[in-house]
Amino acid sequence: MSSDTPLDRRPVKLLIVDDSNIVRRRIERSQQFDDLQVVGTAANGFEALELARRTDPDLVTMDLTMPQMDGIECITRLVKLKPGLRILVISALADKATAVEAMERGANGFLNKPFSDRQLNEAIAELMY
Amino acid sequence: MLREEELKTFVEGTTRYFEVAAQQPATIGSPYLLEGETAMHDYTGMINVSGKREGVVYFTAPRAMLTVLLMKMQESDFSHESMRDLVGEVANTISGNARRDFGHDFVISVPSVFAGEKPQIPQSPGARAFVIPIHWRSHSAKLVVSLT
Amino acid sequence: MQSSGADRVRRLLTAAAGALLAALMALVLIVGFRLATRIRANVALLQRASLLETYPSALSQQLTALRERLGTLEYTGGVHQELADSVAGFDRNLAALERRPGVDRPVLRAAGRLWKAYTPVLAPVLAYSGEPYSDTDFGSSLSVSGKIYYTQVRRAELFAQSSAPALHRRLAALSAALQQRTSSAASRLRLLLSVGVLAVLLLGAAAAYLQLARSRGERAARAAEEQTRDILHTVREGLFLLDADYRIGTVWSQALTHLFGREDFAGLSFEELLRDKVSPATLVTATKYIKLLWGERAHENLMKSINPLGQLEVVLDNGRGGKETHYLQFNFHRVVGPQGVKHVLCTVADITSNVMLARELHEAQESAHSQIDMMVSMLHSDPLQVGGFLDTAAAGLKHVNAILKEPARSHAEFSRKLTGLSRELHSIKGEASALNLMSIAQRVHHLEDMVEELKGKSELTGNDFLPVVLKLDELLAHLRAVREVILRLSTLKDGTPSPEGTLSSPILRLRERASGAEELAATLQGLARKLAEDHGKPFTLSLEGLEAVPAAYLPTVKDCLIQMLRNAAVHGIEPDAVRRAGSKSVTGLVRVQFRRLESGCELVFEDDGAGLSPETLKEAAVRKQLLTAEQAAELDNRSALALIFKPGFSTRAEVSMDAGRGTGMDVVAKAVYALGGRIGVSTHPGRFTRFKIALPAPSQTAVA
Predict the structure, then answer these.
(1) What's the number of domains chain B is made of?
(2) Measured between CB atoms, does B96 come within 8 Å of chain C?
(3) Which single residue of C143, C332, C424, C509 has CA 20 to 30 Å from C375?
C-alpha cells in the first residue's frame, strides 16, 4: 500500500491557537482528516510563534481575542515567519472589519464561534486542498 | 440606552451558543432589571466593553449546568479550570458575536472569570443591568447586560 | 463578447473565399488567354491549309485553261500569270505551315514531296517567255516555241491531273487535323470558361453569404451594444468593473453618475471614489477588502460574507452645494479568466430610504425619551405632590420588576405574570394621570399596552418580555429624570440666576408656596430617595433645625448638604450584606442638625456608615500624587482625615454620577471658608463619619 502513496502526501501539520483549553481540545477532537496531524496547541500569540518555529506547521487555527499577544498581531508575525502558511481564523468577533483585517494580514479563512463540527471541517477542508 | 434589537443580539447569541456547541438551544426566562444585589452563580465570565458602548456583559452559571454542557461538548475534564475556561469562552463568544450588530468599535476585553469570589463589577453611570435568565435542560444561568 | 470567435472565423472565411476567387480568375484568364491564342493561331493555319487544299485542282484547271487557249490561239499571258501566282502561293503557304507548331509534320512532308514532284513539269511551263503564235498571211498558227510550250503545258496538265487527288488528300488531312485541334482547343476553352463561371458564381455566392452573415453579426453586435447601453442607462444600481489596479474601467452605468455626482469615472481608483465620502477607518477597511478580492486566498462565499461595504454611510454632494448622508450597498463579484481574477464587477445600490425608514422607526421610539414632554408636564403639575408620587411609582415599579423576576419557563408561568403587571401598571398610570403627569402616564400606558397585547398570545416565552423590561428601564430612567428636574427646580428657589430663563415662572411659583427651609428639606429628601434607589442602599435622612438656617446661608448650606449627602450614599452607607455582617440595621441613617449658637451657627452632618480609614485616605492621596509616600507615612490620623478637604481628592477610582469626580469635600470646605467658617471631621471605622461646620453669626445686612 505504501508504494501507492505518493511521497508528497505527508500529513498536513496543524497548530491550534486559542486561549480556551476547551476550544483547543474541541478543534483537535472534531477535525476528521486522516492526513491532518496536530503538532501543537498554543494559548496565546507568543506561544504560537514559539511553537510555529519549532514544529513548522502547514496550517494554523487562530483565535483573535487572546491575552498577551492577540491573534491579529500573531498572524502578522506568523506570515513573516513562514510565508504561505495557511491560517484559519476561528473567532467570536463577528464584525466584517475584523474579518477583513485578519484576511489582509494574511489569514486564508474565517470561521465564527460558536461553530459546529461540520462548519469546522468544511472550513479546514477549504484550506487543506 | 440599550435598544431592543441590541439586547436581542446578546440573547440570541447566548441561545445560539448552546444550540451550536451542545446541539440543544437554550430558552430564556423572564428578563428583569438588576436591583442592588448581584445574583451570581458558581462561575462567572465577564467581558468589559469599551468604545462605542461602555459597560459589562457577563454570563454566570452553576457548576451543574457547566458540567452537563461540557459533557455535551464531549469534554471529559470537569475540573475547576475547565469550568472557568468554559464560562469565559461563553462570555467571549456572546460579546464577540455582538460585534456583528454593534460594529468594529464595540471593543471587548478578554474574559475575566470569577468563581465563588464576588466579582468586581464596574458600575457605569446611567447603565442599568438587564438580567436574562437562561434555561437549558433543567438548569438555569444568567446573562447580565449592562451597557450605556 | 460571446460572438467574437464566430465572427473571426467568418471574417477569415470571407478573406479566403476572396483570395481563392482571385486566384481562380487569374488561372482562368491565363489558361483561357493561352487557349484563345492557340485557337486563333490554329484558325489562321486552318485557313492556310484550306487555301492550300484548293491549289491542286486550281493548278489542274489553270493548266487545262492554258492548253485550251494555246489550242485556240487565244491570249495566254493572263492565265500564265495566274498559274505562276498559284505556284508561288502554294510554295509560300506550304513554307508558312512548315514553321508552325501543331501541324501534322509527316503529312506536311508527304504533301511537300508530292508538291516537289510538280516542279520538273511546271518549271518549263513557267519559264516560257516567248511568243507562242506566229502570224502569217494565212492566219495565225503556233510558233515553233509555242508548239514546245503547248507540249510542256500538256505534259504538266496530265501530271497535275494525275497527282492532284493525292496531293489534295494530303492537304485535306492536314487541314482536318488542324480542324480537329482547333475544335478541341475551343471545347477546352468552353469547358474552362464554364468551370470558371461556375466557380466564380459559387465563390461569389459564398462571399455574398459570408458578407451577409457578417453584416448580420455586425447588426447583432450593434444590437447587443445598444442593449448594453440601454441597460447601463436604465439600471438603478451603479455598475462598473474594477481592474487589477483597483481602477474603474471605461464603462459604467448612468446610475453611478447620480450616486456620486460626477460624470467621468474612467481610470478612477476605488479609493479615490470613496475618499472624503467615508471615514478614514472605513476607507482603510474598504481598500483592504478590494485588494483581497484579487487574491486567491479567499473563495467567493467567504469574501461575500465579510464584505464590509454592505451598508456604507457616505457623505455626498447633493447637487445644490450641500452635503447629504447616503447609505450605499456595495456588492462585488469576481470575473475570473484563465489567468485568475480579471475584473471585479461592482454593483452599488442606494439603500438610504431603507436605512432611513428603519432609523425613523427607531427615532420615533427614541423621541419617547425626549424630555420636552416631561418638562411640559411638570409645568402643569404640583411639584410638592410629585415627590410623593415618585416614591409610590418607584415602589410600584419595583414590584413590577419583582414580578418579572419570578422564575418562569412555561407559558402558564409567563401568563400569570401578566395579571400582576397589569394591576401594578394600571394603578401607577391612574396616579400619574391624576397629577397631570402626562409624560409618565403615557409611558406607563404604553407599557400597559404591551402587557395587554401579550395576553392574547398563545405561546409566551421569555423573548416576549424583552421589550417589556426595556420599556420598564426607560420608564425608570424617565422617573429619575423627573426627580432630577424637581430637584433642580427646588434648588433654584433662592433667586440664583436661572440658566434656563424660561423656567422662571414655575420657580417663582415654587417660591411662593414653600419657605426656604421646607423646600431645602424636600430637596434633600428627594435626593436621598434617589441616591438610595440608585445605589441600592436604603437609608433614612433625618433633618433637624433647618428652619433656623439664616437666609444668607441657605445656598451654601444647601450645596454643602447635597454634596455631603452624595458622599454619604456613595462612600459612607455600606451595601446591605456588609451592614448585616456588622450587625447594623439594614437601613442606614443620615442625620443633619442645624443649631444657632451664641457665637454663630453649627451644622452637623453624620452618617452611620463605614467611616473613614486614615490609611485608605493616605494611599489615595499618594496615588493621586497629592503626597509622596514619605510624607504620607509621617502623617498622623487627624491630618490624614483632613486630606479629604484637599482639592482634587477623591477615594473612588471610577467616576460615577453622584460622587467620585474628585470635587467632593474640597468644594464644601471652600464654601465654608468663604463664609468665614471652619469645617472638621471625626470618624469611627465601621460606625460613623461626622462633619461639623461652624459658621459665624450672619451680619445684619445679610439677614435682611
Answers:
(1) 1
(2) no
(3) C424
